[in-house]
Amino acid sequence: MKVVVLGAAGRTGRLVVEEAVRAGHEVTAAVRSPAAFTGGGLVVRADVRDPDSVRAAVAGHDVVVSAIGPSGRHAHGLYSDCARALVSADVDRVVAITSGGVRDDDPNFSFWYRHLVRPLARDLYGDMRLMEAVLRDSRAEWTFVRPARLLDEEPTGVYRVLDGETPKGGWQVPRADVARFVVEELDARRWSKAAPTIAR
């Protein structure tokens, strides 16, 4: 399968690229600064603020994985800009990593997360919700992978997944497990038009 990963230079994006290459996919790593990227796969330039660069990067691929993430002053509107660029590029399929925090009324949020963490990231989560809405209204086949708090740990293979809500008592997950889940979903298509929320 021809897979292009947006945000391939990020901590999760690099792992997605590695897993996809290991799984035998034909992988393109789309990054803002190709010269600085040392991961696997073909490397191309793409900036989600530049729809033309996104259109060129995703052309000819079977699926787009969005592993973009905020970086300081570049964070505002990043996710929704990415979604609009993908719709403009008329992509067929998108697997987008957003966050378990996207849903305002998740019944399984812990008290501290609901009242301490979420308010600090309100704008970011709002932009992720907008990304999901834009893609949901497009012709693309979409999957929104919503991880709990991401950890920089080795994969465990031990996690739970629910459609649209955080697994009860789950509040974190290794990003390496998220990357494996994303790559497995490329072939499995178990979560088409769904929002699998992952936590261990």
UniProtKB/TrEMBL annotation:
One function term, GO molecular function aspect: biliverdin reductase [NAD(P)H] activity
Annotated TM spans: none
One Pfam family named in its UniProt record: NAD_binding_10
InterPro entries, A to Z: NAD(P)-bd_dom, NAD(P)-bd_dom_sf, Polyketide_Oxido-like
Organism of provenance: Umezawaea endophytica
Name of the protein in question: NAD(P)H-binding protein
Location of the NAD(P)-binding domain: 7-187
N-terminal signal peptide: none
Superkingdom of this protein's organism: Bacteria
